[in-house]
Amino acid sequence: MSAQDVVVSTVGAPVACKLRVRYGECDPQGVVFNAHYLAYFDIGITELFRAAFGTLGGYQAMVDRGVEFVVAQAGLDYHRPAHFDDELTLEVAIARLGTTSMTTSYRVLREEELLVDGSLRHVLIDLQRLAERDTDPKTPLPDWMREALGPYVEA
Question: Were both Cys, which of 76, 101, 111, 127 would link to 118 (CB 3.0–4.6 Å)?
């Protein structure tokens, strides 16, 4: 095998995916309604979990192990509008891995133009304690999760 036969791919931050703006996501002014960006961020974190936990079972890997992330904080900055049928690139990376939480950063681009950026802070909860209505169901990130998410932490 010669050097030109080797394809090098790197794993790590950010995870990027393509989105196409649907008509129903637009407001009467013809731009993406602001709340839809949180739905886009949800798509992004799902893709991040798929990349990180793929061989472990994606998002279901957390649920199968009795834990799940819940949103504790959201922040968005709007720079330029997106319109119906625009093809967008959504980038997501981990800005911080804490003891019981994770902060992810997001960028929504149309080609190279930044439209929206933001962040979400998720807290890891124990599903059993949540079902029991424990007043504090948060739980520390386990080693297997920290190891799988590590390559997606921003440098």
Answer: 76
